[in-house]
Design a protein that fits this description.
This protein is α+β, with helices and mostly antiparallel strands and about 650 residues long. The protein has 28 helices and 17 strands.
Length: about 650
């Protein structure tokens, strides 16, 4: 796990050094750079050593023939298997034991496409071919690792985080209105956008090939999307599984899932540093920890944090699971004060506005775990892969009724709900009516589901911004509903979240919080074999008794007593609604009264202040959109945008 930087075009050693130094938290163990002024290419690297801690694992690294040069962030979990496969057909004079060296050897022997098809890992890397003069930028299948790319001043620069681009003297910054619109509606800026114009995120599962002829004028987001090529298609994976379903029994499928998970965990527990796990006491993390502990010769280290607010404290259930499994468990009660103090650091840690409030506990548990271990396994991904969210069932159930109505009938119902909301006193009821009026106006199930994800009140803050559906779907033909295998409900929601919510929301949170304290997070449930297998399962196997993740539940209950885990899902969240009315009230008021807010030309500040007053008076819960807007304004003030 590391941080990478680089540039195509003019770049100096000093500039590369500044870029790499700005992300030193991602790799505190070592740093280096490689520069070829004649070719116009420079690569930089910050190392967080996990495998082969010796200098033979240092980067940027050359292939055996010196043709290829790579700066690599991430892990190739099956590098030992790939090394053995190479040995059967190729003679390689190995210099060390690192996964990066294996990756380079595979790239030389098999080429980029075949190597990516065989690699099981999380990564973002830049690969320079000295013979062809081409640069390949690559991001892993589900977007666990980030990569930003920017065109400015006649060169192309890239880095793991935005801060590495801002240190360049010709940095221009600015705010992309479309990206801000997405942030306020969903809490994050999805690829290929970034908060800045002419700076983009490489989409998950994509390759961007560049050469000297690509230098020059800045490009827009539409052209950037056209230049990106997918080497792995989530749509193809979904359709392949749905059209070639599992042929055995449900019991056999659960047993096979257990085998896949155990092997995924086996690969992710291999490291030359201490490895543990984050344990919330929920289905997903408990399942991962059960697999980790059964394969470990000694008690593994597990960590849970809780808050003073009992409703958001999962320590007791996590401790019960840990005791049963026999882990070395650390359970920490954090005073609300410590969580609130973390708010002031979020802007610097995330580097780009991000407003999923679960970022706070994610950051705090990472800090606690890093004192003991260098890498941790997590249970993330279970909801998106195995149909875990309650919103899936709610949306499907609601649309079964609404979908029977004509578009005109839904529009009429929306008008009635809107009229009622305007005549009754402002409050929770009127807010629900406004929310339902917006959803009733949905033209399709796809549109309806998107509206259920949109933060309440966001559209009022950006009345003139582009439609969020156009932003999310424009140019993304894979998200259309005319694919028979995906259908219109369950399968499509899972697919959408795997391409949108998971890489750009969940993984952004995990990457920034963990890497801010140099902790590597590994996600076994997102092993490509598990993702592919999940799509082969009959739809009805994913939900039982109105509970999602039925397959994961049954597998876990074969390993851990049901009574330890049968409780309502709490999530990894904070009481944001109450905090904005209480301990975070002064923080919010200071931002709203700041010069940055008064001079901001993007958000309707009068509407924002009115919404905050509504929230304080308890006439509505606008906590999520307020958090997004306040996060943006705090970020804007910090970075002078």
């Amino acid at each position: 796990m590391c941080g990478i930087v680089g540039a195509l075009g003019r770049i100096t050693s000093h500039e590369l050094g500044l870029m790499a130094h700005s992300i030193r938290h991602r790799g505190p163990d070592a740093h280096d750079q490689w520069l070829d002024q004649d070719a116009g290419i420079g690569l930089g690297h910050r190392r967080l050593a996990m495998v082969d801690l010796t200098p033979t694992g240092a980067q940027p690294m050359h292939s055996a023939s010196s043709r290829l040069v790579i700066t690599f962030n991430g892990e190739i979990y099956n590098h030992r298997e790939l090394r053995a496969r190479l040995a059967r057909t190729t003679t390689v004079a190995w210099r060390g034991l690192s996964d990066t060296e294996v990756l380079l050897a595979c790239l030389e022997s098999w080429g980029l496409q075949e190597t990516l098809a065989q690699a099981n890992g999380m990564f973002a890397f830049a690969l320079w071919d000295r013979h062809l003069g081409t640069l390949q930028l690559v991001r892993d299948r589900l977007g666990e690792k980030p990569l930003y790319v920017a065109w400015f001043s006649g060169r192309i620069v890239f880095a793991s985080e935005l801060r590495a681009l801002r240190v360049l003297r010709d940095w221009t910054g600015g705010v992309a209105p479309s990206a801000l619109g997405l942030l306020l509606r969903f809490g994050f800026v999805p690829a290929p956008w970034s908060i800045h114009p002419h700076v983009f995120k490489l989409p998950a599962g994509s390759i961007l090939q560049l050469s000297g002829k690509d230098l020059g004028r800045p490009i827009d987001v539409a052209e950037f999307k056209q230049r990106c090529c997918r080497y792995w298609s989530p749509l193809a994976a979904a359709e392949s599984g749905l059209t070639s379903p599992w042929q055995g029994t449900r019991a056999a499928a659960i047993a096979h899932l257990g085998e896949l998970l155990d092997d995924s965990v086996r690969l992710r527990m291999l490291a030359d540093v201490p490895v543990g796990a984050l344990l919330s006491g929920g289905i997903d993390s408990s399942l991962v920890v059960s697999s980790l502990q059964r394969q470990s010769p000694k008690p593994v280290s597990t960590f849970t944090v809780g808050f003073e607010s009992q409703a958001h404290d999962e320590r007791a259930s996590a401790a019960a699971v840990a005791a049963y499994l026999g882990t070395h468990h650390e359970s920490i009660l954090l005073p609300d004060r410590e969580a609130l103090e973390a708010v002031s650091t979020l802007c610097e840690i995330f580097d780009e506005p991000f407003s999923d409030a679960s970022q706070i506990p994610a950051l705090l548990v990472a800090r606690v775990a890093r004192k003991t271990i260098a890498a941790a396994l997590t249970g993330d991904g279970g909801d998106e892969i195995f149909h875990g969210y309650q919103r899936y069932r709610d949306a499907q159930r609601n649309w079964q009724t609404l979908g029977r109505l004509s578009t005109a009938s839904r529009a009429a119902c929306a008008s009635v709900a809107l009229a009622m909301a305007r005549v009754i006193p402002a409050g929770a009821t009127s807010q629900r009516l406004l929310r339902q009026a917006d959803r009733l106006g949905a033209a399709s199930f796809r549109d309806y589901y998107l509206k259920t994800l949109t933060f309440s009140g966001a559209n009022h803050l950006l009345p003139d911004s582009p439609n969020p559906a156009e932003n999310c779907y424009s140019g993304l033909a894979a998200l259309t509903l005319d694919r028979p295998a995906l259908g219109a409900t369950r399968s499509w929601m899972r697919y959408f979240d795997q391409t949108f919510w998971l890489p750009e929301g969940i993984h952004t949170k995990l990457d920034r919080t963990s890497m801010s304290c140099s902790l590597e997070l590994r996600v076994p449930l997102l092993d490509p074999r598990i993702v592919d297998f999940s799509w082969t399962l009959p739809d009805e196997w994913h939900v039982a008794k109105d509970q999602g993740k039925s397959m994961l539940r049954d597998l876990l209950f074969s390993r851990v007593p049901r009574k330890l885990l049968e409780r309502p899902k709490q999530g990894f969240d904070v009481p944001l609604e109450q905090w904005l009315r209480g301990p975070l009230r002064a923080w919010a008021q200071d931002i709203l009264a700041s010069r940055v807010a008064h001079e901001d030309e993007f958000i309707d500040q009068a509407q924002l202040r009115a919404m905050f007053r509504e929230h304080l008076s308890r006439r509505g819960d606008y906590s999520r959109v307020l958090w997004s807007a306040l996060t943006f304004l705090q970020w804007k003030g910090t970075y002078g945008q």
